[in-house]
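re: that complex we talked abt at group meeting.

here r the seqs, copy pasted straight from the sheet so there may be weird spacing, ignore it
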Amino acid sequence: MATISRVYPQDAVGSRPIGQSPPRREDHRLVTGRGAFVADIALPDALHVSFIRSPVAGGKIAGCDLEAARGRDGVVAAFHGGHVAHLGDLAVNPILGPVAATAYPVLAHDHVLAVGQPVAAILAETAMAAHDAGEMAEIDLDDSGSVACFTPDDESGFSPFAKRWRQGDPGRAFADADHIVEVEVRHPRLAPSPLENRAIAVRYEPDEEGLTVWLSTQTPHRARTELANILALDPARVRVVAPDVGGAFGLKASLYPEEVFAVWAAFELRRSVRWTASRSEDLLSASHGRGLLTRGRLALSESGVFLGLEAEITAPVGCWLTNSAAIPAWNAARILPGPYNIVDFDLRTTGIRTNTAPVGIYRGAGRPEAAMLMERLVEEAARRMEIDPMELRRINLVSPAAMPCRRTTGATLDSGNYPEALSVLVKSAAYADACRARERRRGQGEIVGIGAGFFVEPCGTGWESAAVRLHPDGTVVVRSGGSSQGHGRETAFAQIAADELGCGLERVTVQFGDTRDSPEGIGALASRSTAIGGSAVVMAARKALEKSGGSLTPGCAVEASVRYESGGEAWGYGCYLAQIAIDPETGVLTVEKMTCLDDVGTLINPKMAEGQIRGGIAQGLGEAILERLVYDDDGQLITGSLMDYALPRAADMPLVEVIHMQTASPVNLLGAKGVGEAGTIGAPAAIYNAAFDALAPLGVTSLPLPLTACAIWQAIQSSDNAL
Ligand code: SMO
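got the structure back, here u go
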């Protein structure tokens, strides 16, 4: 369905390159089949890897016989855990403090921890030969007596990290409260599902005894550093190239054991090696998202003022810890109480090791969970107290005068006008009319609901690098330490550089993603690319222009390289309104319309921002009504293909209306905030709230996620006022 897009206030767009919506310069190449993804990299003579994976969720490896596999036609080598047991561990970001028990072998050694864990690997001349030979491998697994934990509330779960933040006096807030509401949310475990599966191609470089690694990754420099560490190689001998990346959504932020193996094998065999995951392999062993269990209590005064918040977040991390394993648990807690003015709070967050695929960051990475919990509390309180939920939000939002708003969690809301955003949304969505229409339709027997999600989107701290070179012929080359996961960095960085230099867009070429040619950098994650990566481009352009005496056509090439350090975290925010209808006969939920107000700070390219919002809404809609990875009681993944795991399709999308507001962030040079995750944060909360609103007249008080037809139908049948 169509998208309506407007900028508020309307005169906010000028004629500079920033703020325009030139078409994405990468698109023609990509939609005409001229993209170069990892699988397109030609490596004649490369060996193909096939992994043999654990069929059980726990157990001792009693034997591993690869002789028969080695004897097959085309097979060059076969390895088991013992061959790679000496390799170093994958690094874990200690954002919640030191992480306990992170060890994870590249190939299982001694025991297995989850279904799908790689146990052995075959290398052959073709992918088919490697796969077929894998069938001959004899792995003897003794799974008697193994104890497994699959869900975050499993008592047997081991906790690798935990944290608690208190501010003010939450005990007193709850003692003084006139109303207390409680909410529990079980977030379905999700498959990030980028279009392009994980893929790696490694070329052994005999001259320098080095490796060139084409990797579908969001973080090429980190991958290079980690690979060098794990293999005990000089980083100068490892070059990582992220070519076109077909989506990532957090799944490609961390390095995987399969990828480490491919690189090790190339070095060991002194031959090129490649591996492309199948969709089922990704569903089984790439990192999952969400799966958290969140509980919250909100204390309110007689008039609806929020007095205090308690929250308990439990996050499954899976059988091994990805680099970003602690991020969802961190974000889901530290973002609370989101856009609301609550001084007294007590927030606890805990990671739980589970015998499943790893759970890591997935577009939103804790932000959707925080927004969902907070917004469910808000609308539950509104229903209980019979206050309009928008009015309840209005009286509790942090005011612009209170910014920057610092919290003991380390979060600092930098800027924005939340109350104005709410009022713009209420007007744009014709909220009062929508409420009247809802009553009218209810009178005619329809099940319809309206729900909102007000959210914040922190978009990263730290640094990014950039280099800008001015050529005598007036052309400009921008090199960024950031990278692209398909989200239009070539276009946005070109606009930013052209704007700063005062030149035409067509003069600017943008390069990134190659550790040999790009300055050391962070990458494409955490909604940080524009705010931090873009500000680095501004700074480098300014410096280059200074160096050239202000001339865009210097006598010789002039280059400036910078490492830009962000002055803090920029917080995007928005409010989404979902209007839904439920078929009383079947329970099928239809999102009829989604109205979105987003403040992403300075808008670089409104069309691309809208694309991010729309794509995020599609994924958020999947999270709310369709998607769930399911393990059975033995730890078998029973949603192992896209026949069993329901991704949203074009026909599931509602009419989307996007309204852009722009409050420049004071913490970076561009005044930009993130937008990459907005849709995945606002949409699920709004849809879930709308479902409760729709079903409240029937007496439904609890609804599982996702809101499948089956789940809703059952809720209707078991409600007090069943039809
Ligand atoms: S979930 Mo993101 O790629 O930081």
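couple things i noticed - Residues 460-565 form a domain with the Aldehyde Oxidoreductase; domain 4 fold (CATH 3.30.365.10). The longest strand covers residues 306-318.
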